[in-house]
Amino acid sequence: MENTDIAEIFNEIADLMEIKGDNPFKIRAYRNAAQVIEDLPITLESIVEREEKDLEDLPGIGKALHEKIVEIIKTGRCSFLDELFKELPSGLLDMLKVSGIGPKKVKVIYEVLAVSSLDELEEAAREGRLKHLPGMGEKTETNILKSIKTLKASAGRYGIADAMQIAEEFTGYLKELSGVIKAVPAGSLRRGRETVGDIDILVTSKKDTPVMEKFVSHPRVERILGKGETKSSIVLKSGLQIDLRVVEEKAFGAALHYFSGSKQHNVAIRDRAKKMGLKISEYGVFRGSDHSWLAGKTEEEVFKAVGLGWIPPELRENRGEMEAAEHETLPELININDIIGDL
Questions:
Q1: Contacts for 60 with CB less than 8 Å, ≥ 6 apart
Q2: Residues 159, 194: contact at Cβ < 8 Å?
Q3: Separation CA 96–CA 105 (nearest Å)
Q4: Is the confidence at residue 167, as pLDDT, over 90?
Q5: Is-above-0.85 flag for pTM?
Q6: What is the DSSP letter of 330?
Q7: pLDDT tens for residues 224-248?
Q8: Strands across the sheet with 284-287, in order?
Q9: What is the per-residue DSSP string for 199-219?
C-alpha cells in the first residue's frame, strides 16, 4: 500500500465528513494527515513493519489515525470510510471531480435536489435546476456541463504526472535485475500527452533474465492479463494497465520508435520508407528487395535510414515533423532550464 493511496483515503474521508457537516476540526485533521503522508520520504508500510508505534511520532498522527493507517496497510480497506459510504452515496465523490464544485456545494446539491451522481448532476444542470441554489447561477451550470464533458472524455485515462511517476517506478524496479540493459517508457507517455490510457514499457536484457516474472510480481499488480516470453500485461490496483515488451538489443531503437507512435506518424514514415524501397517495422529497417536488415539498434539509426534527423517523440503526430526534419527546421522544445518562474 503506497503512501499516496492512504492519503487519498484520508482525503475521501474528509470530503465525505464535510458533505455530512461533521466537526471542522476533525475534517482538518484528516486533510493535514493526508498532506503529511504525501510528503513523507519513506513509506508508512515500512514504518509499520519496523515499529508500528513510531507512526504517532509523525505530525498530526494520533492514536485514531494510527489505527486507521495500520488497518489500511493490513487489509487494504478502511472500515470508517466504509461506514461513511453506508450513510452517503459514493457518487458524491465523483461530483467533487467537477471543476468549481467542492464539498460545501455538493452538500447543498445533494440535500436540496437529492442529486448523488455525475449523471444526475449533468441532468440537473441541463434542466436549469442548479442556478437557483445559493452561490450558483447560469454561469455555474455552464461551467459544470463543460467540466463533466471533459471528465467523461478522459474517463479511464490518467494524468501525465501520475503516469510518469508509475512508469519511473516500474522501470527502476525492472532495472534491479542485473540482466536488464535498458527499460524505457514508450507510447503516448513518451510523447508527452497530457493524459494516457495505459503505459508501454520496452526492455532489452541478457538471455534468461527473469524480466516477466519480476514484472508480474510487482506489489501494485491487481491482475495479470497475459504473461509470455516477449510480452506481458498487467492491471494495477488503480485500474491502470501496463504492457511490457522485451525486445532484442539490435532492434531496440526500431521498437522504441514503433511503440512510441503516434499511429499517424508511424503510417507516414512507413510510406516514406516504401517510396525509398525500404520496409520499416518494430524489428528494424529492411531493404525491400531482399529483406536484409539495415538499421534498428537506435532511433537515430532508424531516422537516418529514411533520410531524416532524429525527431523528438513529442513532435511525432504527423503534423509536418518529417518535412521539418528533412529541411532541418524542427522547432526547439522547451526544457526545464527554460522555466524561470511559476505563477
A1: 29, 32, 33, 36
A2: yes
A3: 9
A4: yes
A5: no
A6: P
A7: 998 998 999 999 988 899 999 999 9
A8: 278-281, 284-287, 293-295
A9: EEEEEEE-TT--HHHHHHT-T
How many CB atoms lie under 10 A from the CB of residue 224? 14
| Separation of alpha carbons 59 and 171, rounded Å | 33
Question: Would you state the pLDDT for residue 97?
Answer: 87
pLDDT by residue (tens digit) across 86-135?
A: 998 888 988 988 888 899 999 999 999 999 998 999 999 999 999 999 88
Q: Is the pLDDT of residue 155 over 80?
A: no
Question: Which amino acid, 153?
Answer: A
Which phi-psi region, left, alpha or beta, contains residue 335 (left: φ > 0; alpha: ψ -120 to 50)? beta
Structural domains in the chain, CATH included, are 3-153 (1.10.150.110), 158-246 (3.30.460.10), 251-326 (3.30.210.10)
Contact 248, 284 (CB under 8 A): no
* DSSP bridge pairs for 293: 286
Q: What is the pLDDT of residues 11-35, one digit of tens each?
A: 999 999 999 999 999 999 999 999 9
Cell 536488415 locates to: 293
- Report which residue type is found at 148: I
DSSP 3-state of 65: helix
Side-chain half-sphere CA neighbours of 204 within 13 A: 15
Backbone angles phi, psi at 171, to 5 degrees: -65, -40
For the cut 90, the answer to whether the pLDDT of residue 341 exceeds it is: no
203 Cβ partners below 8 Å, 6+ apart? Answer: 174, 180, 182, 183, 184, 211, 244, 245, 246, 247
171, 185 Cβ separation under 8 angstroms? yes
Give dist(CA 190, CA 313) in Å, integer: 6
Distance CA 213, CA 150 (A): 38
